[in-house]
Amino acid sequence: MSDTPSLHDDGWRQAHVGHWMSQALQRFDARVLSLMARNAEVPLALSNLAARGSLGASHIHITRHLALEGSRLTDLAQRANMSKQAMGKLVEQCEAWGLVTRLSDARDGRARRIVFTPVGLSWLQAFQQAVAQAEAELRAAVGPEVATVITIGLEAYAA
Questions:
Q1: How far apart are CA 151 and CA 153, in angstroms?
Q2: How crowded is the C-beta side of 49, counted as CA atoms within 13 Å?
Q3: Which strand (E) or helix (H) includes residue 142?
Q4: pLDDT means per 10 residues in the chain (159 residues)?
Q5: Kindly report the CA angle at 126 between 121 and 128, in degrees rounded to 5?
Q6: pLDDT of amino acid 50
Q7: Angle of helix 57-65 relative to helix 118-142, nearest 10 degrees?
Q8: Fewer Cβ atoms within 10 A, N terminus or C terminus of the chain?
């Protein structure tokens, strides 16, 4: 007898580790954006965008993956596991909102680097604070031991 559920038992599609990781990431990112929307140091226009749901998890990809010294679009897309075209659209939105700008790459005059603007660096600082608070809330919700096991397990699995 196999431990694999029958295809006719549909519950397995919503009760596996990948599903729970996805749900947890969505909840975590939503909480981070909620905290950022209420952060007084986030520029008001960005705070309003976050509060209205115009900024989403896809915009967090830029925040998570853009190197402080800047990144080429191709590298940024690769780190975020997105297509170059999709990342290009996100970068265009973030440029319009004043989070990033494109500069000539000093190493290759044909290439452009995407860098945080001063507003983008304020956004990044707020992101850091929101992530720290969301992590603290996770620890409080599941307990410090479980939170540590989750972190160690996910680090090992992602490596």
A1: 5
A2: 17
A3: helix 118-142
A4: 66 84 91 86 75 75 90 93 93 92 85 93 91 96 96 93
A5: 95
A6: 73
A7: 110
A8: N
